[in-house]
Amino acid sequence: MKRIHIEIALGTLFIIASSVILILMASEEPARLARYETQQLASQIEFGAAVYEVNCTSCHGSHAQGVPGKAPCLRCPDLFEGRIAEVGWQGSLEDYIVSVVTTGRQISTRPGLYQGEGQGPPVMPTWSDKFGGPLRDDQIRAVAAFIMNYEEWAANPEAVPTPLFVVDSNDPIALGRVAMVQYGCTGCHTIQGLSEAVTGPVMNGIATRAGTIAGYASAEDYIRASILNPNEYLVEGFNEGVMPQNFGEIIPAADLDNIVAYLLTLTDN
Amino acid sequence: MISSLRQRLSQIPRGAELRKRIFEMIDERVRIVTAGLSIKELRAVLRGDPPTEKPNPRYKVITTSFVAHLRPRYYPQGATWFTHTFRLGWFTTFFFVVELITGLVLMIYYIPFPDQAYGSILEIESNVFLGELFRDLHRLGAEAMVLFTWLHLFRTYFTGSYKGQRTFTWLTGVALLAITAWLSFTGYLLTWDQLGYWAITVGTSMTDSGPVVGPALNIIMRGAPDIGTGGLLRFYLNHVVLFPLIAILIISIHYYKVSREHGISMPAVIEEGEVSEDKKKEANRRIDLIPDLLTHEIFLVAVGILALLVIVYFDLFNSPLETPANPQVTPLDTKAPWYFWWLQGLLKIEPAKILENLLNPIVTRFGMAPLQLGLLLDSKFIMGLVVPPVVVGILFAIPYIDRTPARLARKRPFAIAWGILWIFIILALSYMGLPEFGIETPAATRVIQDLAPEEGLGILRETPYEELLPGIYTVGETSPEDLCAKDFAYTDHATGKQVIGCPHLVEVFEQYSSGLLAAEAEGKLPELHAILLIEDYGPDLRRVEMEVSWLDAESDEVKTYVKHYFLHRDRAREH
Fold this sequence. Notes:
heterodimer; A: mainly alpha; Cytochrome Bc1 Complex, Chain D, domain 2; B: alpha+beta; Cytochrome Bc1 Complex, Chain C; 4-stranded antiparallel β-sheet; two-stranded antiparallel ribbon; 23 helices; 8 strands; globular
């Protein structure tokens, strides 16, 4: 057999082998496309979660639980079950979320429940970089995908794991820090490394400051009273009635103790 | 009337005569299409038989057919020895054709606009039938083309095939090396992910330090101070129109000189004698284009296609796609493609420092102030803009520098040693170009980056969702056995496998602990306190937080480094 004959035989064999591989690939392709789409959605949700954590937690809560009086819960049934009908939105819920995040919202649609009754800064800022915000379209789409992922929890509240927040249960300070986020304190108060907000006074240094205020036996006394009766003593430059008056009813005593313990660690240093 | 028709009908041949006439008609058409080969001849060609007519009709094809006229009539056998050429140039061309075909398919789906580019790649991967195959082939073909261009260059150098009348061919070859590099560089940006965006940002920033026109050149390439809509469009047009056209032109010149002007070089042993007359005669025997060379090339095509498909099918190569480009965030460990590592390595050399270290001991001995050369010798300018053009210049000039006619390796030991030295220099520079080399990352950052790199997978992201058990795990306190309950077992939803215990989580925690404790032992992280925290963050979604704090010796303050990861149940855990 001459070399050319070997080449013809082997070449034919290789072409058949290539065809077999192609046929195998083509037959697996629909499954691969579906798998890729699922994985892609998963990584979009992860990406959205990261964008959410950086940009949205100060108003909507660390775990999308919302901040009373400030911004709604994003994993609760009312968003998934009637929100778009309530505002008369024509498209899908996901598109509604994208639209709200993109353009922000000048005034609240539920002024009784949340802040933002007209004049003043927008209740929700514009997030799209097309209108001067910080987020690109793909980031906004990812945030929407992240919120849509909560649908399962909204439909079965019992599916939400407890405890949702993982902290060392023996450490009141760590528990207090989480409670500050959980009950929405960080939505209005700046705590370095945890939140940035201007509605209420900055919390760093409160432990030092609290001890100097007349009329209170101790720093702890002052902090506790300020949470339960916010109007009793007003820090200069802040108005009466801005802080919710009902924290005494919302926050269980144990959590309140932890919050106070945590705040007492925020000294000037 | 009818009788004349009958008469004409009776003239139509029948039986054997009819078959012969039909066969002749078809044969004539076949000769026109094949530019001179009859059916019988075609059959002989396909079977590897000798020509059926005289003069040899196979040579006629080369004068009459446009496509075939680009090809040689024959090569001397010696020039086709596998150990002489290794088919490197041939395979480079093959990969170029693969790039053209797969590139055209990808162009149908790709959108060269920042808002949509990344999305269109996802679309190719998730919504185009065999889209991933075409993307993988395009990427694999590109890397193979770069590799084979380099290998081809070194082969030509070591066999001395650039000498005499082949000097200009060498020149076009070096130009093709540069064009290949530029084609892959421009293609790198198009995916619009962090990998491409930052590799190109770093790459184009080299021109910025150039004199007078440097900043302008940077703007011309990027389309704006930062790469955006204009920059992407420029790179795209460079990649799909301008440079493919230039490449086709120069490949044509390069190939035409090889095939029609001076042929593939004969092995030096044949050309410079020292072999038996028989061997010489054998080496000079003609190998005709039709059928031998053509059959061999079709065979090589079959080999090439099979190799590419096997590599892609068995996941030996996957085209990477990282998170979308983010101009605000430079990822840790920015890495150029492997064929540019040598350039990245070059940029880490600081000539001013080297000269200072060399000269200052002497200068200070004479009582003079130590030299400060940093302002005089800008590293980025010298290593990024002076050295590479000089290197390319030397490459271009090789046939004009080395004018000795000798081709046998042992007759030109200096040139061979020089070539080997260059291979080592390129390898050493490439090693220096790795992100791990010469760049000190803070200990805590390094440990976490190795566990879960900002881009890519890492063992944390390979951990199945089921093993990410919510809780706080403290380095030095939590024992790896306590990460999950004794009887913990689960079924991996992706693979369907039964797993006992939580081996991945243990591996993650052990690597995290051992890395940090080692850094503590080295004194880099005194009074270390580190936790690994896992919590639920949504349905099928968990958040992993790694928090490391230590006492910073310089400022005497507690420093903290925190990194968050979100991991969804359905995420891709391999690739």
